[in-house]
Amino acid sequence: MKTLKTNIYFKLGTIFIISLLLFIPTSMIKSLIYERELTQNDAIREVSAKWGEKQTISGPFISIPFYRYVKEYSKKNSSEKTVQIKEYIHILPTELNISGNINPEKRYRGIYEIVVYNSKLTISGSFNNIDLEAIDIHKKNILFNNAEFVIGINDLRGIEQQVNLNWNKQNISFNPGVSSNDVVSSGINAMLSIDTNNNSSYNFSLTIDLKGSQLLYFTPVGKVSDINLKSNWSNPSFNGAFLPDKREVNKNGFKANWNVLHLNRNYPQIWTSNKHTIENSSFGIDLLLPIDNYQKSYRSIQYAILMIGFTFLVFFFIEVLNKVFIHPIQYILVGIALIVFYTLLLSLSEHIQYNLAFIVSALATLLLIAGYVLAILKSKKLTLIISGILTVLYTFIFVIIQLQDYALLIGSIGIFIILGLVMYFSRKIDWYQLNLNEKNERIE
Question: What is the pTM of this model?
Answer without folding.
Answer: 0.73
